Amino acid sequence: MPIRRRQFAALALGAPLLPQLPLTARASNPAAPSWPAQPLTVVVPFAPGGSVDVAARLVMPRLAERLHQPVIIENTVGASGTIATQRVIKAKADGYTLLFGVASSVLIAPLVSPAKFRYDGLRELQPVAPVASSVFALVARPGLSAGSAGDLLQLARQHPGRLTFGTDGVGTSLHLTGELIQQLTDIDLVHVPYKSGPQVLTELAGGQIDLAVLPIALVQPFVLEGKVKGLGVTSRQRVATLPQTPSLSETPALHALEVEAWQGLLVPAHTDARIVDRLARETAAVLAEADMGRKLAEAGFKPMRMAQPQFAAYLEQEKKVLESTIQKARIRTD
Q1: Which tens digits make up the pLDDT trace of 277-290?
Q2: Under a CB-based contact definition with an 8 Å cutoff, are residues 262 and 165 in contact?
Q3: How far is CA 286 from the centre of its chain?
């Protein structure tokens, strides 16, 4: 939610970027000899059919084959992914419970609701490996008079506080992207939070809301079938699978916009380093497969390959940038 890295850190508009690094093994020690001796559970913090779930279901079966153990995906939905995140934080640190994490629940939620979410995602979870990145899309209901991002800005300025945009919750990466679009263009939209991306898309296609900021992997079929209008994507370049949908940065008022989002594996803190290393190596091996790269691309993702220490540093930098963005936008839900 590939890294000519601006990822979601682009919200800082010019924050220092972490370079793409070659994959290297952190240690040559073999994994704990008894691991894995039973099936693994990967907790996905969003509903089945959503973009995060799609990425997990593409990659996890191949990881299972490499580990010679079943990998069971469990969708634990609610509170913008924080229920799933806290479930993994509290799990036994034995390498059998993993989080298919995203910025919304791992990094953002404790920043926007510190009284409600009393956890530190980078202290109570151990980053293992990135999996994929994706870009977002700004999409509109079929009947909206705006046919482009420029048209939308004109319409929004004519009717401040009237147009609605839906996302998968308050304080999520999608919400922050919508807020950033408003900040850059000085327009006033009304945020409508939902429990999941598929729910937002259904409401948008039905005309209940005007706009939505959603992962491109989710909206792509709806745009291609004409069920919603694609106004723009948040990457600097157009997306190959949606060539007719421009980059939002092609609109002068949004020329600085560039947002991508990561998905990756994390485990409870204090998990044996040998297990973490094994998981990181096997995940990287899966992502290096040409067929996996093709499948991810068709679904709207880019594989991410990064050594475990660099992934941990990447998330630390991401947290700093997000914290700055949230403070500027004054987003608090406590």
Answers
A1: 999 999 999 999 99
A2: no
A3: 20
